[in-house]
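Key result, reporting period 2: structure in, sequence out.
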């Protein structure tokens, strides 16, 4: 009973903080919402019995990656007056996309319930892990290289903007 309540709490916290990342404008607030989402995912992993993954989620992603991201945000020194408004103009399109995604998800759940026991086997953790480690590991590593390149590009853009002209 308590496990179900905690699962619902962590799931709602993950969805809520993910939505906050979409609508909040200030980069530091977005980073804090991302930290909340990662901690919620760690709680879900712990409830599922994957304690090692939960610890790695907290140590690596929250501890190391988010410290790096917060450092970059502080290094960029974002003090633009355009960030004074609390929410982004992308709030309405994001809400529409969220509702469309929710409708697709609800349709898939409804279809799965209608198929009953005789339907196709769902994608379990073991099948996902096997597919990820065998087929998609290179894509995952390329995304990390792209993230580092994006940080370097952001630093280069800020450095160009700070150089005296003349």
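The corresponding designed sequence is given below.
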């Amino acid at each position: 009973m308590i496990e179900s309540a905690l699962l619902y709490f962590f799931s709602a916290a993950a969805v809520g903080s993910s939505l906050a990342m979409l609508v909040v404008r200030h980069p530091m607030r977005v980073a804090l919402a991302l930290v909340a989402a990662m901690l919620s995912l760690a709680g879900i992993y712990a409830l599922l019995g994957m304690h090692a993954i939960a610890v790695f989620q907290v140590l690596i992603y929250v501890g190391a990656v988010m410290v790096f991201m917060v450092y970059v945000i502080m290094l960029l020194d974002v003090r633009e007056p355009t960030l004074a408004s609390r929410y982004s103009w992308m709030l309405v399109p994001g809400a529409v996309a969220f509702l469309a995604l929710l409708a697709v998800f609800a349709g898939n759940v409804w279809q799965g319930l209608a198929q009953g026991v005789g339907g196709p086997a769902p994608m379990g953790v073991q099948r996902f892990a096997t597919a990820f480690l065998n087929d998609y590991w290179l894509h995952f590593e390329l995304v990390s290289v792209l993230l580092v390149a994006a940080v370097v590009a952001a630093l280069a853009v800020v450095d160009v903007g700070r150089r005296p002209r003349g």
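Helices lie at 2-23, 27-47, 51-76, 91-115, 125-135, 137-162. The two ends are 69 Å apart (CA to CA). This case is discussed further under Risks and Mitigation.
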